[in-house]
Amino acid sequence: MSITLSELDQQLGARLRIARNLSELSMDEICTQIGLSRTDVLALEAGRKRISAKWVAQFATLLNVEIRWFFGFDSSAPGADRSNLSSLSSACTSAALKALVAKLNEHDAVAAQAA
Predict the structure, then answer these.
(1) Residues 6+ apart with CB under 8 A from 95
(2) Where are the strands (E) in 11-62, listed by range?
């Protein structure tokens, strides 16, 4: 079973979002250090923009994540001390990633309402 480029973009984007949300860095800090705009990072996370190998490497270093984790080859999650995320870190299927993105979107909406 092969994965399409669109599915790969979505997987990479979802995993990027997980790592970013678990990091202690603000979106502005991440954008500045990577050299991308907030819009670009959000488009990468949504799978609407193709992420380059250079950016994968930069995000992995900045967010303290193994490069292979972005591709689903490593079961260790960013923020490994957060035991409640162990099941999320192994989500590699498109359905699981879509459910995870929906959960993250719901969390963001609740947080925005509370602010």
Answers:
(1) none
(2) none
